Structure formats: C-alpha cells, structure tokens
Amino acid sequence: MNFAMSCSNLSVISRGSRAWIVAAAIGLLSLLPATPSLAASSNWALNEGGRMRLILLPQEADGTRHGALVIEPKPGWITYWKEPGDVGIPPAITPAPGAAYTVERVGFPVPKILTNGDMTDVGYDHPVTLPITLKNAPDDTGVTLSAFVGVCQNICIPFQADLSVPPDTDGVANAVETALVRAAQAQVPPGPSPEFHVVDHQLGADHRELVVRLKMPAGADSPQAFVSGPSGHVFTHSVASRGTGGETVLTLPIGKLPKKYKIAGKHWGILVVSGNRAMETTLAFD
C-alpha cells in the first residue's frame, strides 16, 4: 500500500448486535439530506475514498458534550484504528485554533486485521463511528473540529476536513443523532473487570517478546490481542497457551522498536478480543 501523500459490558449486547445498531443508525442518518445540515451536525465532507461528518449532542449537566465522527469509506476502501499497522494514517480530531473547547476523548470500536499482500493494517473496511467527548463547548457556541483520517484502497489518501456544527439554540437532541452516538459509545470496549483482566505482563530483557497473563471469562474463545506500543507500532501476532490456575497466557513477538528505546516508565495499550467480548486497558512498565 503506497501513500498518495506521504462501557458497558459487551456480554449484554454482542459485537454483532452492536454493529447492526450502528449500521441502522447510520442508514437512517444517510437518508436525510446532505444539506442543509441537521441542527447539531456538520455537512458531509467528501473525498475520493469516502465521506465523513461531525455530530454533537446537547451539553450535559457536567459541562461535557458528547458526539461522534462518522466515517464512511466507499466500498472496497478502508480507514484506520488509532494504531494503523504497517502503513496508515491514525485518525486525529483537533479543535479549531484558539478555540476554548477541547477534545477530551475519542473512542474506537474493535478493529479488524486487514491484509493486502505482505502489508498488515489495523482498521475498518466498513463505516465506523468514533464517539467523542468535548469540554467547554456550550450549545450556544458553534464548534469546528479538524478531522484528519486516512482512506485507502490501492493507495492511501489523507482526508482532512474542518467540520463545523452551528450553535444549537434549542438544546434538544435529534433522535437519530442521539441513537447513533449512543450506539457508537456502546461499541467502545470496556475496561478490565473481575472476570476479564490482565493479571501480569512482562517484556523480555531483549525486548523481543511480550508475555501477558490474562484472567478470561469462563468458556471464552481463544483471544486476539492488539498491543499498541510506541507511536506507530502495533503488535497483533500472538500465541495463546494455558497457564497456572486456569489463566490464559499470550506470547507476542515484538518487532523492531525505536533505536535506544527505553521501556521503563512507558505505558502501552492492549485490546483483547474473545468472541463477542472485548476488554481494553494499559500495560505499565517499571
């Protein structure tokens, strides 16, 4: 692939059911006219490989404002997870220069491993909705966010757009938009739980192998792990084995790390997927 330019507990609703909810909400939204925009939505930004738009709900009592970035790659195109793999562009969502509001959080649903020849990407080959949380963005203030994503087919095309949502003087959420944002939030993997968590982790002294011990739900399928290390590094190949006390042990080969990389004090992310369950947390290294 070459560049044209260089929550809730997932046992309650399966990932398949959640994906259906998101798809249905996107379908309803896409039936509405592209212009003018809905009361709390931007217009669609268009690109050779797809389109995207911003949705915002009314401000919450605690001052936060929830919303979502809707990314719709065209059929045959893909877009990326927060760590994209061998080649790719991770999504970036930033406020307009000088804005008082901030982007506090961007959520990502469970991605896929996508292969193209000898290249491996991590992302989505279907429409994806990324839930976002803003602070200091009252309803009576217009919001502009710069969204920068990659969409790829045989080449990767950077897709940048300034997405503007006008002031919402009514403070009343559109039902379709609300359903889409809530469904997107439900797609984000939850953190650890007593029945599904990392027990221990150890990176070898030569930094060549990571061993992660997991407490898994009873009867869980063999897990798939996505480990995001230094920026631009994601590790997805793992071998599962049975440990003491019924734990699951994942062994991941670690590819080349940055020169003179020091692991002490670093934090890596890990997403573990098992059937219709998923869990996401952080690996801290002493």
Automatic annotation (TrEMBL):
Residue span(s) of domain Thiol:disulfide interchange protein DsbD N-terminal: 61-163
InterPro entries assigned: DsbDN
The protein's name in its UniProt record: Thiol:disulfide interchange protein DsbD N-terminal domain-containing protein
